[in-house]
Design a protein that fits this description.
The chain is an alpha+beta fold and 126 residues long. The protein has two domains: 48 residues, no CATH class; 66 residues, Ribosomal protein L7/L12, C-terminal domain/Adaptor protein ClpS (Ribosomal Protein L30, Chain: A, 2-Layer Sandwich). 57% of the residues lie in helices and 14% in strands. Strands 2-1-3 form a three-stranded antiparallel beta sheet, with helices on one face.
């Protein structure tokens, strides 16, 4: 029987070109493909990747979807949440899909959402 340790050492010393040539020789002689085991391993590797927990989102943005019937209250809430002046807050309130906050913490985003909704706006946190 062949000394497996010696064979493993010899395989470890092959150059990339020699390894590719050996692969072709084995495929031809045995009628198999070296790529087949990798194709079967790919779904298993994907399953392992899916099992890992996703990173928790740390930055949120607050998007104003609709001002609602109380535009003045929403403008006041925007000014309270941000450092915008009256004109900028009014322009923001009149812009559909405007981002009130970007890269905010979860607490700040939830606080802004509750203030804007209390003023009558429709808000989305993402």
């Amino acid at each position: 029987m062949t000394d497996l340790k010696k064979l493993a050492d010899q395989l470890g010393n092959l150059t990339v070109l020699e390894a590719a040539e050996l692969t072709k020789m084995l495929e031809e002689e045995w009628g198999v493909s070296a790529a087949a085991p990798m194709a079967m391993a790919a779904p298993a590797m994907a399953a392992v990747a899916e099992a890992e927990p996703a990173e928790e989102q740390t930055e949120f943005q607050v998007v104003l979807k609709d001002v609602g019937p109380k535009k003045i209250d929403v403008i006041k809430a925007i000014r309270q949440i941000t450092t915008l002046g009256l004109k900028d807050a009014k322009d923001l309130a009149e812009t559909a899909g405007a981002k009130v906050l970007e890269a905010a913490s979860k607490e700040a985003a939830q606080d802004a959402k509750s203030k804007l909704e209390a003023a009558g706006a429709t808000v989305e946190v993402s």
